Amino acid sequence: MKVRAIALVATVTVLLVGPLAVPAHAATSQGCSGSISSVDDQGAPLDKVTVPGPGGTNASPFQLYWAGPVTWTAQTDQPITSGTWQLTIQNPSWLFALGELVTGHSHGLDGTFASGQGATSFTNSFTPSSIEPLTLPGKYEVGFTVTGNGGAECTGVISVQVKDSLGRNPLWWLAFILLIAGLVMLYAFGISKLTRPVAARKRRFVANSVAGLFLGAGASLMMTLYGVVGWSMTAPDLIIVVGVAIGVGAGLLPARTLRQPTASKTRVGSLSS
Predict the structure, then answer these.
(1) For residue 218, what is the DSSP state?
(2) The pLDDT value given to residue 1
(3) What gap in Å lies between CA 267 and CA 88, rounded to an integer?
(4) Side-chain half-sphere CA neighbours of 257 within 13 A
(5) Which end of the chain is more exposed for a tag (fewer CB within 10 A), N or C?
(6) Rounded CA gap, 255 and 202, in Å?
(7) For domain 23-164, is the CATH number 2.70.50?
């Protein structure tokens, strides 16, 4: 059983843990420069970052509200009249990559633009919810690429934190349900073996492993939604692995068994008269 448990944990680790992503130390860009600013849910200024610049890091990401307008200005090294743009999440965790695949955005978000006459200075504003209605709060390493029709290119990376009302987000409720289900199952099938003896020795290894998976997935989703860890890091995957490991450990705990009472043998002697 122990050998199979070790093999299971190793397999789960290989499947869940992706390549280690190195968070950006600052907002970077090549072929262009500019700034981006956002407002809060009340319309007041929230954040502003210069690209390239010291802001927009993993420790201090650019903050924005999904339903609030974002304003940007840019200066390109070469004139651009029209072209394409693309936004991608850098080194996404498997959970986020699965969500991108389901929504049909495995390649990120992209589109075309036309600026009229060739220019090197641009300014515009947009609301993220108008581009992608699905709100997924959390912290991201976002890569952007703008390619002009004449071959001019602007690329960069910036760390962004999306803020939103989590109580209205269905993923928050999914994480909450997974956490509760995982804790209840872990207690019922694992921890309870330490608090009360049982008549039969039962490990319930599979049930505890599933409980650990629920617990890890719920904790991972909850922490990414709050921005404690980023969607572009291996931390969400590692949290799930820790949850599975806890479940496997609980499944291997020995059960406290009740000793079955032994019938006492009574010797009946013959009475001598």
Answers:
(1) H
(2) 42
(3) 85
(4) 9
(5) C
(6) 7
(7) yes
| DSSP class of 190 | I
**Which stretches of the chain are assigned E, i.e. beta strand?**
28-30, 32-39, 45-51, 62-65, 70-89, 109-126, 138-148, 153-163
Pairwise CA distance, residues 66 & 61, whole Å: 15
240/14 Cα distance (integer angstroms):
12
Q: Say what percent of the chain tops pLDDT 70.
A: 77
Answer whether 27's CB lies under 8 Å from 50's CB.
yes
Q: What angle do the packed helices 235-252 and 2-16 form, to 10 degrees?
A: 170
Locate the domains of the chain by residue range: 23-164, 168-252
CB proximity list for 147: less than 8 A, separation 6 or greater: 83, 84, 85, 153, 154
Cα–Cα distance, 213 to 33 (Å, whole number): 44
Question: Cβ contacts of residue 123 below 8 Å, gap of 6+?
Answer: 71, 72, 73, 74
DSSP letter for 62, please. E
Question: pLDDT digits over 70-87, tens only?
Answer: 998 888 888 888 888 888
